[in-house]
Amino acid sequence: MSDSILELKNVTIYQEKNMVLQNVSLEVKRGDFLYIIGKTGSGKSSLMKTLYADLPLTEGEGTIVDFDLAKLKESDIPYLRRKIGIVFQDFKLLPDRSIFDNLDFVLKATGWKETEERKHQIDEVLDKVGMKSMAFKMPHQLSGGEQQRVAIARALLNNPELILADEPTGNLDPQTSVEVMGVLKKINENGKTIIMSTHDYALIMKFPSKTLKCEDSTLFEVVQRTV
């Protein structure tokens, strides 16, 4: 297994037919925590969508969790996504199911057959994000921060090699953002690789890590003090 979990070489990213990023070259090692920043429309989300194969890679070379993005077939995408946990800005919890049933739905859909094994896995991931006591609540009974913790737990269900967090604090107030960021940092310290897109520079200052910026169709590393 390679020490690199993600490698892009001379990649150009398109949103429909519009070029949004060009000449992207990037390597992420296992265990890294990487921020991707930039204004709305700068290409952050398009880059993330390319990484989890929502947008095809049509120019350049790219590998992620040992999948070749340029040669990826439609039938390969579910297997790629089992190795990647994805956290979105808007939680995407099913409103008519309890937290437990939201997570159980994902496990059943990804091939977990045994009821007891699923229950154990759900207990374990909810415990990691401090939400074990909330398992039988409905999403509307939780605060935004609690819902995002559940979304992080959902991303951990299949023990992914990489977590992609696309603006995970975008809908949260500053204090809740710090709490959710603390959860992500703890998960990273326990060995998970995390790539997080954000426009929240205050969080980056509070939790410094390697930072790349999307600007003028390019992606480049920024020194912390110039963020």
TrEMBL record:
GO terms for cellular component: plasma membrane. Gene3D superfamilies: P-loop containing nucleotide triphosphate hydrolases. SMART domains: AAA. The keyword Signal does not apply. Keywords: ATP-binding, Nucleotide-binding, Transport. Residues 6-227 form the ABC transporter domain. InterPro entries: AAA+_ATPase (IPR003593), ABC_transporter-like_ATP-bd (IPR003439), ABC_transporter-like_CS (IPR017871), ABC_transpr_LolD-like (IPR015854), MacB-like_ATP-bd (IPR017911), P-loop_NTPase (IPR027417). It holds the Pfam family ABC_tran. The keyword Nucleotide-binding applies. One of its GO terms (molecular function) is ATP hydrolysis activity. It comes from the Bacteria. Part of the ABC transporter FtsEX involved in cellular division. Important for assembly or stability of the septal ring. Belongs to the ABC transporter superfamily. This is Cell division ATP-binding protein FtsE. It comes from Flavobacterium orientale.
